[in-house]
Design brief:
Blueprint (H helix, E strand, L loop, with lengths): L7 H17 L2 H10 L4 H10 L20 H12 L3 H21 L2 H13 L4 E4 L15 E5 L2 E12 L6 E7 L9 E7 L5 E2 L14 E12 L11 H37 L1 E2 L2 E2 L4 H29 L5 H25 L10 H9 L9 H13 L3
Parallel strand pairs: 1-4
Antiparallel strand pairs: 2-3, 3-7, 4-5, 6-7, 8-9
Helix pairs in contact: 1-3, 1-4, 4-5, 4-7, 5-6, 5-7, 7-8, 7-9, 7-10, 8-9, 9-10, 9-11
The chain binds flavin-adenine dinucleotide.
The site of flavin-adenine dinucleotide has 19 residues, from strand 1, strand 3 and helix 11.
InterPro entries: Acyl-CoA_DH_CS, Acyl-CoA_Oxase/DH_mid-dom, Acyl-CoA_Oxase/DH_mid-dom_sf, AcylCo_DH-like_C, AcylCo_DH/oxidase_C, AcylCoA_DH/ox_N, AcylCoA_DH/ox_N_sf, AcylCoA_DH/oxidase_NM_dom_sf
Cofactor: FAD
Family: Belongs to the acyl-CoA dehydrogenase family.
Amino acid sequence: MERDIYDEDHEAFRDVVKEYIKRYVTNEARERWDAEGEVDRATMRAAGDAGIIGLSVPEEFGGAGMLQDYRFRAIVNEEIIGAGSGSLAGAFGIQDDLAVPYLVHMGTQEQKEKWLPGMATGEIIGALAMTEPGAGSDLRGIKTTAKRAEGGYIVNGAKTFISSGKTADVIVTFVKTGEGNRPDAFSLLLIENGMAGFDHGKKLHKMGFHGHDTAELSFSDVFVPEENLISGKEGMGFVQLMMNLPLERLSIAVAGAAAAQAALGWTVDYTKSREAFGERIIDFQNTRFKLADVATTVDALWAYIDRALLAYKDGRLSAEEAAKIKFWATEREWDVLDTCVQLHGGYGYITEYPIARAFLDARVHRIYGGTNEIMREIVGRQIAGKR
Ligand SMILES: Cc1cc2nc3c(=O)[nH]c(=O)nc-3n(C[C@H](O)[C@H](O)[C@H](O)COP(=O)(O)OP(=O)(O)OC[C@H]3O[C@@H](n4cnc5c(N)ncnc54)[C@H](O)[C@@H]3O)c2cc1C
């Protein structure tokens, strides 16, 4: 089904992304990111130069100022995932969907001036650290503390599974500034690379997303100046996280649909080129039936997601709607990728093939950004009339 949410500006932007891919998303580059476990800085800077990251950074800070129009980000995901590089799409996503929004929406003027221009050019890498070894779904169970001190806070604790955690220059960090677990006991602090007592820890070895770093972080008596408190207001951290979660969930749904769409394309090509029993794989009725299912699922994914993209643009995408689309889209993505791996036979299991990498990347979509069980919990509570 033809999609109708993109206008000429979006399509012109798509051409820019394609041009970037031609130059920078080569097989050699992808293999290097996978081997090193991270995307190199030159690639991030080139994305800044091309104007395809930092999209929501306001123009006065050197960005594109596309604050609510996530359609541009969707195009970046479609094209980069379509080019077989989920890791690069992941690195861009952390910058644009998880780090930049806290500064744009909630940063003080000084924080914006200090960080946003570099985030738009790709010179500064951002990350978001909420999860801890002992608390993921239950964020109010975190133990990292930020105690008041002369001119700032002393931070102690640890975070884990932090995407871009090894390469980040600045990390929006969820900490406890109060007692107990009431929403006002938490704040967001900007913790900077190089602060004494802050250790980026070790890079974690993952099932997928091999070219994007995920790290453990530790904080041992890290002094964080008062001016690094997001919005300058203590006790707002939980509310601030809740404000950005719909975007994070929409972004995962978009990445899932982009992967499903890419998988369809790769699988059609593959099954046309491979033969068994004297016929092309696509000429078996089973293959065509499976591809018919996949193509229909991809259409349904975009029909749903496109509505959500427009709702987000108009400020109408609620936390519950974002939760629905996140779990539904990532589960359809999983079904599609599994089918497409199967249609590739043994080659579907070999990571030289984009289908195998996309399959490995897809598994975490049902886990991070809030697990799909937590998404169902959010939706179910609303249906039951519980808060
Ligand atoms: C590759 C990767 C990248 C990540 N990037 C980041 C990042 O950049 N920043 C960040 O802060 N975090 C990040 N995370 C962490 C991620 O968001 C968490 O792993 C996720 O929220 C789940 O938390 P957990 O691992 O502690 O699982 P747990 O909360 O321990 O959950 C374990 C199981 O119990 C289920 N469960 C828990 N509570 C309930 C409930 N109430 N009802 C029903 N079932 C429940 C869960 O659904 C899950 O199946 C990342 C994780 C991975 C793997």
